[in-house]
Design a protein that fits this description.
Layout: H1 2-34, H2 38-41, H3 56-64, H4 67-99, H5 102-116, H6 123-132, H7 139-163, H8 167-175, H9 180-191, H10 193-209, H11 212-217, H12 225-229, H13 240-260, H14 262-270
Helix pairs in contact: 1-13, 3-13, 4-7, 4-10, 5-7, 7-10, 8-9, 10-14
Length: 276
Amino acid sequence: MKDKLSIGKRIGIVTSIVLSVFWLFPYIYVVSSSFKPGSEVIAVPPKFFPKVFSIENFIGVFTRTDAVKYISNSLIVALLSTLIALILGAMSAYAIQRSGTKVSICLVILVLCLKMIPTSSIVVPIYEIITGLGLYDTKIALVIVYAAINMPFVMWVMLSFYEGIPKSLDEAACVDGASNVDTFFKVILPICKPGLATAFIFTLFLAWNDFLISLLLTSTNAKTFPVALAGFLSAYNLDLGPMCAGAFLFSFPVMVISLAVQKYIVQGMTAGAVKG
């Protein structure tokens, strides 16, 4: 029996490694191409590893575009919108879950519907509203839009966590004289740290990687790095070297953060799966 389990475990490990290699292959190729000379990137037939390591693609990213400005725009917008969505979404989900009324069921369904709406179907009304408010090409517009779009996701994540917290904790805090605000911030939120970490990371990545909304709502001042990176691709020019270097620079922090907070993400995704 143990031999069968060990064989199955080995097969699972080998299968996971093979699938991981296939999944990471495009990204590894982008990283390899970012260190190739420009002529070698577009060479036919392509070579996976560079013959000569070169940083000319990285130099091209910073000399041909204001990369520092665009990366800082992406970072500022992603962080601010994530914090706003996290605070408002967590408070809204707590109010819905603890209300105990029939209206709360309708609100949960509404949150689910909002989460399912594709962004591409609402970008035109968003563009008209932002331009009507005079906020076009501003970081404030991106922060507001990203926070509004990602808040239903935060609410949906936090609702499942609040369901696993007994209401007796709220009642005990109320007996001790704590207000609803004190109960939420001092009793409930500390218990929901894995959920907050999960919602924070995924919401941050959604705002960081967005392309469509930033493309429509910005032109020069508030342009984010994904939109600036697309400038290397046009109908008459295909500069893949700087694009690969820029993609590597933009994605590498995300990879590092994902590995660093993997423990919290796993806790957040599996919390509530087992109830005793």
